[in-house]
Write a structure and sequence with these properties.
Elements (H helix, E strand, L loop, with lengths): L1 H14 L3 H4 L5 H20 L9 H14 L4 H16 L25 H22 L1
The structure holds zinc ion.
The site of zinc ion (ZN) has 4 residues, from helix 5.
């Protein structure tokens, strides 16, 4: 996630989209609190295993709050991306602990994670992202 955030900031800086410039605006205490909480949650999430805390509604709410403190305009897109990732993970055959800390997870069992449906969703998502970037740059 840190690599993705860094890549997004570099891309934003290179494209001049403005997110980079908003860093540090507003209350610096809230910005640092958001960054610190986000880093702590990422560490906790990586320790709780894939599809544990990191894929829960609790994590989505807390991390979206952190993103709102860091980049208010990125909070809604972050929440949508988070939710779409969790929804995609729920479609395959390994459960997602959506209601963490509850032990029971949700698994729809429709697809395998590394087969055709996964590749089709990845290709479709990539094409959609390229189209969105092209549309935004026009
Ligand atoms: Zn996942």
């Amino acid at each position: 996630m840190a690599v993705t955030a860094a890549a997004a900031l570099i891309e934003d800086h290179l494209l001049g989209a403005g997110m980079w410039k908003s860093l540090g605006h507003g209350s610096s205490y809230l910005w640092f609190a958001g960054m610190a909480a986000f880093v702590i949650m990422c560490i906790f999430a990586s320790g709780s295993g894939h599809r544990g805390f990191s894929h829960s509604l609790l994590a989505m709410a807390l991390e979206t709050l952190c993103i709102w403190l860091i980049f208010p305009s990125a909070a809604a897109p972050f929440a949508v991306a988070f939710a779409s990732h969790v929804l995609m993970d729920m479609m395959n055959k390994r459960s997602v602990r959506l209601f963490y800390p509850a032990k029971k997870g949700i698994c729809l069992g429709w697809f395998y994670a590394d087969r055709l449906a996964n590749k089709a969703f990845a290709a479709g998502g990539t094409l959609w992202l390229i189209a969105a970037v092209i549309i935004c740059l026009r």
